[in-house]
Design goal:
Blueprint: E1 2-3, E2 8-10, E3 18-24, E4 27-32, E5 38-44, E6 49-50, E7 64-67, E8 71-77, H1 78-87, H2 91-113, H3 118-130, H4 144-151, H5 155-164
Antiparallel strand pairs: 1-8, 2-7, 3-6, 3-8, 4-5, 4-7
Helix pairs in contact: 4-5
Domain Cyclic nucleotide-binding: 1-77
Pfam family, one: cNMP_binding
Keywords: Activator, DNA-binding, Transcription, Transcription regulation
């Protein structure tokens, strides 16, 4: 399946009828809270099979995944995934590797958030994302609010950073 910028892969609250393997591109995952706040809490990148919380057993989808750039995804029927997980003794190790990779990604993101200045955090985020978007500038596919959420600063700070340190 090919999704273009802005198209939704899955919605918060959907049943886990499918899993998705990201072959190329990037997705942002947002969560709408009861108070109306929308928070960007994850980035999906090539090589991931998602939703992570449904790799071993089904669970309602936790957020909405939206393509940031043109992306290719393999759709996997959840029933087939779970059956293969039980039948093929190599599959559990595959799932463990997928989860390990995501933990390592989260560790890297936490490291980026603890770097000294907001400018350094913006640069690290931009470089990490650039590996997956073929040189497309960060501001072409993410809002200043979203960038701020990923580097731990307010939108106004991102605006100031982008004016003084263009990417």
């Amino acid at each position: 399946m090919i999704l273009h910028k802005g198209e939704v892969l899955f919605h918060q609250g959907d049943e886990s009828k499918y899993l998705y393997h990201v072959n190329s591109g990037l997705f942002k995952v947002t969560r709408l809270h009861e108070n109306g706040n929308i928070v960007l809490f994850n980035i999906l990148y090539p090589g991931e099979t998602v939703p992570h919380h449904s790799l071993i057993s089904p669970k309602e989808i936790h957020g909405t995944a939206i393509a940031l750039v043109t992306s290719e995804v393999e759709v996997i029927k959840a029933a087939d995934w779970y059956r293969e997980l039980e039948e093929d003794p190599r599959r559990p190790l595959e799932v463990a590797r997928l989860l390990q990779e995501k933990v390592r990604f989260m560790q890297e993101r936490l490291d980026h958030l603890t770097v000294g200045s907001p400018a350094e955090r913006l640069e690290l985020l931009s470089k990490w994302l650039a590996r997956h978007v073929n040189g497309t500038p960060l501001t072409d596919y993410m809002t200043q609010e979203e960038i701020g959420q990923l580097i731990g600063v307010r939108r106004e700070t991102v605006n100031r950073l982008l004016r003084s340190h263009p990417l």
